[in-house]
# Entry
Amino acid sequence: MNALVLSAIFGVVMMFSGVVFQKNAAIKTTGIVAMILLFLANCMEMRGIKFFKFDVSGFMAFDSYALFFNGIAIFATLIYLLITSNQMEKVGKNFADYLALIFFIIAGITITTSFKSLLTLFLGIEIISIPLYILTGSDKKNLKSNEAALKYFLMGSFSTGIMLMGIALIYGSQGTFTIDKMDFVLSAKSNLHIAGMLFLLFAMSFKASVAPFHFWTPDVYDGAPTVFTSFMATIVKAAVFIGFVRLFGGAFGRLEETWSIWVAIMIAATLFVGNITAVFQQSVKRMLSYSSIAQAGFLLFGVYAMNDAAREGLLIYSAAYCLATIGIFAVLSKMTDYSFEGFNGLAKHQPVLAFTTTICLLSLAGIPLTAGFLGKFYMLKAAIMTGHHLWLVIFAVVMAAVSVYYYFRVIQAMYFKEGLFNLLRPAALKNIR
Amino acid sequence: MCIELMLNSVNLLLVAFSKMQAAKDAAVTVAGTDGQLFVFFIMVVAAAEVSVGLAIIVMMYRNIHSVDINFLNRLKH
# Structure
């Protein structure tokens, strides 16, 4: 509750800070201080100190799992702001508004991760999505950004329609939106309920960019300004997955036989499409957007396995994935050339930067000793513990091996190829030093 | 817009279901009211969504002086 109320208040504060402060540096400091306060407030709630006492039972439950994920999300956003806020200033004139929208998205994330009713799930997902449409189109003069925003808006509102249809059908069969009040004996027999569940599965897959509902992802991630792509592809995506797990563990837990095979097929499709298509990309940004589809396949193991190991694994995986991807996108936003050749010879001129990128890429590829390896390990362990569909785990390992190829292409370009020094922007060079 | 149409159809469905719930247990006077409440939330969200969507379309029109979607193929390569 602390994080939810405070992030909404801070969002409004950030909007006004654009009017009050003339300099971007002051706005940036306000944003970072507010994010630190938000993190502390969330930590306090984990220790049992609540600032606000509202009765939200039946709508939201701020349990330790949700609070822990909110902590990860807020911390990752803090890191994100610290690294990329310089880049964010260059996107457009409305720096304060971008920060305000990010705070509103955090409010949406706290709702999505702690919902207890389908009403709050819907509101949370929408509070995440609508600011994201704006952030995608924030580079107003750039046609690619416009196109990405329009595509994202159309796809997003289409999936919202599907989600609402699912919710309405479930309401028709159950007579309630509250997950705890649902009658599971009845739901197994009700076709209305099963249809609603499938609608919700598809809608959540849309939002989480799981194949075969991933078509918007590469275009949108490619067209959006790089700083906001990094936010969309990491923190938001992880939050949607937490909502996904809560929905299918809570509302449809008893129907697991019905949906687990669908989810298994979707995992296989996502891993295949994401990894194989990423191999053929020429632009690193586009490669990363396909790689984020592939990572969504691994995150989906959390929904598939639905045991305690999977829930813990999801937290570790999302933390590792968020930090690594934010790091790579931060490097990418400093580049002028997004192709693989743009990275040529980076290690010679910027050894620290190249080394950080290498560690982030190794973590994404899941090489042992990195956090990404632990995440993948936990997810696959959880899938093995369920005891069926072992082929899926083997397939995932093979696909992780494929992913090593395209991550190492960047490392190879950085360390073993000659490149020009002037590919980095002069201003960016100053910041790195 | 077709999106409005989709959301309105869901509104209609929710109201119908809430009437059905109210008829099912007539003893409880509040039965089915949450379905009708949901409709208001959908209306609010739809208004917010449409305002953002129209803003995106206006932004596009300023750049290319047309709202023809055939111009939007720059990301396909």
Summary: The two ends of chain A are 41 Å apart (CA to CA). The mean pLDDT of chain A is 89.
